[in-house]
Design brief:
The complex is a heterodimer of chains A (about 450) and B (about 475).
Chain A (H helix, E strand, L loop, with lengths): L3 H22 L41 E3 L2 E16 L2 E8 L8 E4 L3 E8 L8 E3 L23 E7 L4 E6 L4 H6 L3 E7 L10 E10 L18 E4 L10 E4 L3 E8 L6 E5 L4 E6 L2 E2 L7 E2 L1 E4 L3 E8 L4 E7 L22 H10 L14 H6 L15 E2 L4 E2 L5 E7 L24 H6 L5
Parallel strand pairs in A: 2-5, 4-9, 10-13, 12-23
Antiparallel strand pairs in A: 1-2, 2-3, 5-7, 6-8, 8-9, 10-11, 13-19, 14-18, 14-20, 15-16, 15-17, 15-19, 20-23, 21-22
Chain B lengths: L5 H17 L5 H15 L15 H10 L4 H11 L1 H20 L6 E7 L8 E9 H5 L1 H66 L5 H36 L25 H8 L1 H25 L3 E10 L2 E10 L8 H66 L5 H36 L27
Antiparallel strand pairs in B: 1-2, 2-3, 3-4
Helix pairs in contact in B: 2-7, 3-4, 4-7, 5-7, 7-8, 7-10, 7-12, 9-11, 10-11, 11-12
Classes of the chains: A mainly beta (about 450), B alpha+beta (about 475).
Chain lengths: ~450, ~475
């Protein structure tokens, strides 16, 4: 009988061996690129949360539960249709795992032996690919190449040992454009068995993705190539994104993965500079890390940033591509900015009484109009919708969330809006101030 | 004929003359028959006795009708009061009536007098003779039969004319209503393209669109204005058509109820062909004419045998004694046996019979087509009422929502508005065609084939939705 240990030797062990051989042949370093603190041939007891690792937080998401059977972590993913809400006022019939879009975060520890059952409750065949995870070829989940597709009603078993740590992903690798466009993806976090750096106090996981949902429809359009109009963090768009909450002084880690169809995302964090410490390929040596305020997360990649939460406040964190912080923006419209439409308004009164000229001074008021019900809107749509902030309307939507750092936290639920000390709050200049500083307006 | 004596000759003559003298030349009875028939079949009443001169207050009545908004009913009333063709048709009844009276008359008797101067002192010989065309008298009943049949034919024709006029007025009325509604929709369409053009102007002046886009929108606005002019002309034409039927002057001021009524139901009539045949006034007229031809033929048959029979009385005073006795003159059918005339009248009967059969076939066909056409128009109207217009309404509503959501621009919004207007126009044309088809069926059921065939297609100017400019 072939034992699990033998299996490991036959598969991972053999591969590692050949890699070593190849490396020797090239007279290069034997270290793999991926981050590793375990002996690839070693046998480890399954890592336990709060003992071997601090569990991650997936804002708006969840973590996939597991059972330990004979020393193997057993997971069960169920691919199925899910009615998913992107933000209040917008939902769609998507595909996800275990009732969630995107799928729950799979959390493992380096050295774990994992067995993942995948049940297909979709009408379409599917597979699951473990993106960035070093697995035996037959476990790679590429439809047609590494396995046959999992048909409706079937359950497949994937099993491999985790020999790396870092931020990884999983997604369907069958009919990719449709299935990923419908939401079949999730994050994998592999914690190091023997962390070389300090463990963060707050560890967030955010999957970036994009969708095409025409206002008034209830299904992502997976035929779209570039007209994506809903940009999400963990499949939610602002104001549907939950804030990232941290106490002042905590070490914060944010892990980004990007499985958008066509867009990289430069994620900018206000109020902080951070180090980019990991990619899905592995951890970046300290000496090679760059301080940044914006991390570019390319399609098919993960990036991990670490920083110390030392600056209290409500801090915007968003993709810096302006279209990506707009909800359901239409682009096939004339440029209205700066035009004088008074002559048109006159004619429209009798013709279409409900007509309102829009966009002549930009789109800033649009979301407010929508929310206040000034105009009839297509059902199930949130065009240009942002949210009411503490001072005014927040004109951003989409790939936008808020990092909330507070001096004193009771818990990690939303602490509400930050009250800036009066002397640190921007406000209208007084006449005295203008005169004093010689400012003419 | 041979035993006809002078006495009886005079009795007959005097009798006929007396009878003729009693016959009225006014077709009052005929008109009242026509009037009843028209009323029965159309619900409309012939409002004055056209054998009399027009009542003085006719203009007052017309003015009073015109001072209010004209309805289809009141338009028909004016036409029945004032249509000159109708008065001409009534005159036909007078002609027929006169013909009938004339048919009862014989040619005036010929009085002959001859004075003979005998040789010597003999007294003058005085020959007095009165001659009547004998057959004239004998044929009086037949001639009356002919004239009577012809008068019957005229009654049917005049009734048909009135029914036809009523249908024409109704058609012209809905045509004008339609033209006015189409015109109003053109006004809306022009406002829509004006708004597009103004938008393009505003965007162009702001530097947001190029000259090409601006010119394209402007061009489209100009085109729509041209189409509106087409619509204006149609209204003018329709108004003049109605004016003509109502016998009104172009300058006469009147307005008519704007909106075409929307029909609520359609009565299928499977028996339309039988009804059309039974009601046909053209068949009635043709039958009456056949009877007239038959009577004519009988006369010709007789006259072919005895072409001219003159009967007379001759009184001769001879040697102071009057001798009186009948005289006869007969043209002997030696050279002309009348064969050709008989053949001609027989052929005329055959022709009339064949035309009668042909008319029946035509009536059946026209009735069938008119009914099918009405059913088709009903479905079309229902389609616009139940499907097209509500959908267009919703489409515009949704388009406005998409505009509000800034998914589309004002040009697309206005294009949707123009599509809705175009659908409105298509509905108006459908309504007009439905009512005209209904009028045609009503006319057929009232006994008249439509003068304008209901299958005629009309040129229908419509709003074009155009292409959308100004996106990127």
């Amino acid at each position: 009988m072939v034992t699990r240990r033998d299996m490991f030797r036959l598969t991972g062990g053999a591969m590692a061996g050949s890699a070593l051989l190849a490396a020797s042949a090239n007279n290069a370093t034997a270290d793999p690129a991926y981050a590793q603190t375990v002996d690839p041939d070693g046998v480890y007891t399954p890592g336990e949360p709060n003992r071997d690792y601090t569990p991650v937080t997936t804002p708006n998401g969840t973590t996939l539960p597991f059972r330990i059977i004979d020393g193997v972590k057993v997971f069960h993913l169920v691919a199925e249709p899910v009615q998913h809400q992107f933000a209040p006022g917008l939902q769609a019939r998507c595909w996800g795992y275990n009732g969630h879009v995107h799928g729950p975060t799979i959390e493992v520890v380096e050295g774990d032996r994992v067995r993942i059952y995948v049940t297909n409750r979709l009408e379409a065949p599917t597979t699951v690919h473990w993106h960035g995870v070093i697995v035996p070829s037959g476990m790679d989940g590429v439809g047609g190449l590494s396995q046959r597709a999992i048909h409706k009603g079937e359950t497949f078993k994937y099993e491999f040992s985790v020999r790396q740590y870092g931020t990884l992903m999983y997604h369907s690798h069958h009919d990719e454009m449709t299935q990923m466009g419908m939401g079949l993806m999730g994050m994998i976090v592999a914690h190091p068995r023997a962390p070389k750096t300090s463990i963060p106090d707050r560890d967030f996981v955010i999957m970036l993705s994009e969708w095409a949902i025409e206002p008034g429809t209830f299904r992502p359009d997976t035929n779209v190539m570039s007209d994506f109009n809903i940009l999400t963090m963990n499949a939610r768009c602002y104001p549907g994104t939950a804030p990232l909450v941290a106490q002042k002084g905590q070490r914060v880690r944010i892990r980004f993965g990007n499985l958008s169809a066509m867009d990289h995302h430069p994620i900018h964090l206000h109020g902080y500079a951070f180090q980019i410490t990991e990619t899905d390929g592995g951890s970046i040596p300290k000496a090679a890390q760059w301080p940044e305020t914006t991390v570019l997360v390319p399609v098919g990649s993960t990036r991990t940033i670490d920083f110390l939460a030392d600056n209290p406040g409500d801090w915007a964190m968003h993709c810096h591509m302006t279209h990506h912080i707009m909800n359901q923006m239409g682009h096939n419209i004339p440029n209205m900015v700066g035009a004088n439409f008074s002559a048109v308004d006159e004619k429209m009164t009798g013709l279409l009484p409900a007509y309102m000229t829009m966009g002549t001074d930009g789109m800033g008021d649009m979301g407010k109009h929508v929310e206040m019900g000034h105009m009839a809107m297509p059902i199930n749509s949130i065009p240009m919708v942002g949210a009411n902030g503490p001072h005014d309307y927040i004109t951003m939507g989409g790939m936008f969330t808020i990092l909330k750092v507070r001096e004193n936290l009771q818990g990690y639920e939303d602490p509400g809006w930050y009250q800036a000390p009066a002397e640190t709050q921007a406000k209208p200049a007084s006449t005295d101030e203008l005169i004093r500083d010689g400012i003419e307006t | 004929m041979a035993d006809l004596n002078l006495k009886s000759l005079f009795v007959v003559t005097v009798g006929i003359l007396a009878l003729s003298g009693c016959s009225s030349l006014q077709p009052t009875a005929e008109l009242s028959e026509v009037s009843m028939l028209v009323h029965e079949r159309t619900g409309e009443t012939i409002v004055w006795d056209p054998t009399l001169s027009p009542p003085k207050d006719i203009n007052t009545e017309i003015q009073s009708i015109l001072s209010k908004t004209l309805t289809m009913k009141s338009a028909v009333r004016i036409a029945l009061l004032n249509n000159s063709g109708l008065r001409a048709a009534y005159a036909e009844l007078g002609i027929g009536r006169a013909d009938l009276v004339q048919a009862g008359l014989v040619h005036n008797p010929l009085f002959e007098a001859a004075v003979k101067f005998p040789q010597g002192d003999h007294q003058l010989n005085l020959d007095l003779g009165i001659t009547l065309e004998l057959l004239d008298i004998l044929f009086v009943p037949l001639k009356r039969e002919i004239a009577d049949s012809e008068l019957n034919a005229k009654k049917a024709e005049v009734a048909g004319f009135v029914i036809g006029l009523i249908a024409d007025v109704r058609d012209a009325f809905v045509s004008l209503q339609a033209a006015q509604q189409i015109e109003n929709l053109f006004e809306q369409a022009v406002t829509a393209t004006a708004a597009s053009s103004a938008s393009a102007m505003a965007l162009y002046e702001a530097g947001n669109i190029n000259q090409l886009t601006f010119d394209t929108e402007r061009y489209f606005h100009e085109e729509t204005q041209l189409a509106r002019r087409e619509g204006n002309i149609r209204t003018l034409e329709a108004r003049e058509q109605l004016n003509t039927l109502l016998g009104l002057n172009q300058a006469t001021q009147w307005t008519l109820s704007l909106r075409l009524p929307s029909p609520s139901r359609f009565e299928a009539n499977d028996d339309i062909e039988r009804l059309a045949l039974d009601a046909s006034l053209e068949l009635t007229a043709a039958r009456a004419k056949l009877l007239a031809l038959g009577a004519t033929h009988r006369i010709k048959n007789t006259t072919a045998l005895i072409p001219v029979v003159e009967a007379g009385g001759v009184a001769e005073r001879n040697e102071r004694e009057w001798e009186a006795g009948p005289s006869f003159a007969v043209a002997l059918p030696i050279l002309d046996w009348g064969t050709a005339r008989r053949a001609k009248s027989r052929a005329e009967i055959v022709r009339a019979q064949e035309n009668y059969i042909g008319l029946q076939i035509k009536i059946v066909a026209v009735a069938k087509i008119a009914h099918a056409r009405l059913e088709k128009e009903w479905h079309k109207v229902s389609f616009y009422q139940k499907t097209a217009l509500p959908l267009q309404f919703r489409i515009l509503d949704q388009t406005l929502q998409q505009y509000n959501a800034m998914q589309i621009g004002i040009f697309e919004l206005l294009s949707a508005k123009r599509k809705q207007i175009a659908a409105g126009q298509a509905y108006i044309y459908a309504l007009r065609d439905f009512w005209m088809a209904q009028h045609a069926v009503d006319e057929i059921r009232a006994g008249r084939l439509p003068s304008v065939q209901p299958f005629e297609t009309f040129g229908s100017p419509m709003v074009s939705a155009g292409t959308v400019q100004g996106g990127h």
